[in-house]
Specification:
The protein has 15 helices and 14 strands. It has about 350 residues and is α/β, with parallel strands linked by helices. Strand 1, helix 1 and strand 2 form a beta-alpha-beta unit. Helix 9 packs parallel to helix 12, helix 9 packs across helix 14 and helix 10 packs across helix 13.
Length: about 350
């Protein structure tokens, strides 16, 4: 199979780099300066074993690649806010022998949150979800790092909305030859919702920096509790923290390349790069949506969604808000909600 990585940034670049190292055929899809750097100098891939340069085919869209092959696998690794544009571009792409990518090819959503696979299923007939546990960083155009060892990541994989098939097992087999663990599961959404709860911290990190202080961690537990209440009210199953810990074990250790501490997550990286967008609508915003649908208060997730979007829109510096100030805003948001609820009664 040939793997077309749509969005060869941190996660996509790490998956593509590892697949290429294992001998699989890979095409990288990127935009702007990253695309130009990949075309000119290849993908510089930094891992605990060292830095390698992979000179892989790189395109900026389906037109440049031409007719797709029947053995192509599309791996969607853009941020969720960019999914609709990518799906619209790649869905109509012609496939050798007739038909389109949306009709004939598997699309694998290797992204945070749960919304992209819903969007994909409106266009693509064969959609797969992935729960992505993969510490990776977009360093600069043309350069991606993945600091996990001995495994680079754990990628639970299954059909969306549920089930497994031979294609999923073949993709998983290729990933497992490429320094990933890739369990094929019939309930991949259960793992993705568990990851979503963890990703509710992304907005906190984006606006205050790496989440290490007791005050910041306590705030995250309050945010997560809202998320769990919303999922429970919606009747959505998710893997518990103990099961996640047992699954991960010590299979992925963080080994920084320069002795530094763990870097911040994907939302912080978006702000740091000044992209102007952030994925909070599909993380904290997913909990806000479920809360509104099922009558569960989510003032903290509402606040983080608004705040992260404001930082992105106004190009504010990542991590520039103090944890103490964020906690103050959070307490005010809860108090305002409580006051409004009392008045409504």
């Amino acid at each position: 199979m040939r793997y077309i990585i749509i969005g060869a940034g941190a996660v996509g670049g790490a998956i593509g780099g590892r697949l290429a190292e294992a001998g699989h055929e890979v095409v990288l899809v990127a935009r702007g300066a990253h695309y130009e750097a990949l075309r000119a100098g290849g993908l510089r891939f930094m891992t605990p074993e060292g830095v390698r340069t992979h000179r892989l085919p790189a395109v900026d869209g389906p037109v440049a690649l031409g007719e797709l092959r029947t053995d192509d696998v599309l791996i969607l690794a853009v941020k969720t806010q960019d999914s609709e544009a990518a799906l619209e571009a790649w869905g109509p792409s012609p496939v050798a022998g007739g038909g389109t990518a949306a009709e004939r090819l598997p699309l694998v959503c290797a992204q945070n949150g749960v919304e992209s696979q819903r969007l994909a299923l409106r266009r693509f007939s064969r959609v797969y979800g992935v729960c992505v546990w993969l510490p990776a960083t977009f360093v600069e155009p043309g350069v991606v790092s993945a600091a996990g060892t001995p495994l680079t990541g754990i990628l639970h994989l299954g059909r969306h909305p549920h089930g497994t098939d031979e294609t999923a097992r073949r993709i998983a087999a290729d990933l497992e030859k490429s320094r990933f663990e890739a369990p094929v599961v019939p309930d991949v959404a259960r793992w993705q919702y568990a990851k979503l709860l963890g990703n509710l911290a992304n907005s906190i990190e984006a606006v205050t920096g790496v989440l290490t202080s007791g005050e910041g961690l306590a705030l995250f537990q309050r945010v997560r509790a809202e998320g769990e209440a919303a999922l429970d009210a919606a009747g959505i199953a998710y893997v518990g923290e103990e099961e996640q810990k047992r699954t991960r074990g010590d299979k992925i250790r963080f080994e920084p390349f320069d002795g530094s501490e763990r870097g911040a997550g994907s939302s912080w990286q978006s702000l740091n790069r000044g992209t102007g967008t952030i994925e909070a609508d599909y993380l904290n915003g997913e909990i806000a949506l479920l809360g509104r649908l099922h009558g569960v208060p989510t003032p903290l997730n509402d606040l983080l969604q608004r705040l992260a979007n404001t930082f992105a829109r106004e190009h504010r510096e990542a991590g520039s808000l103090s944890v103490a100030e964020l906690v103050r805003l959070a307490d005010e948001a809860v108090a305002s909600y409580d006051a409004a609820a009392t008045t409504a009664e």
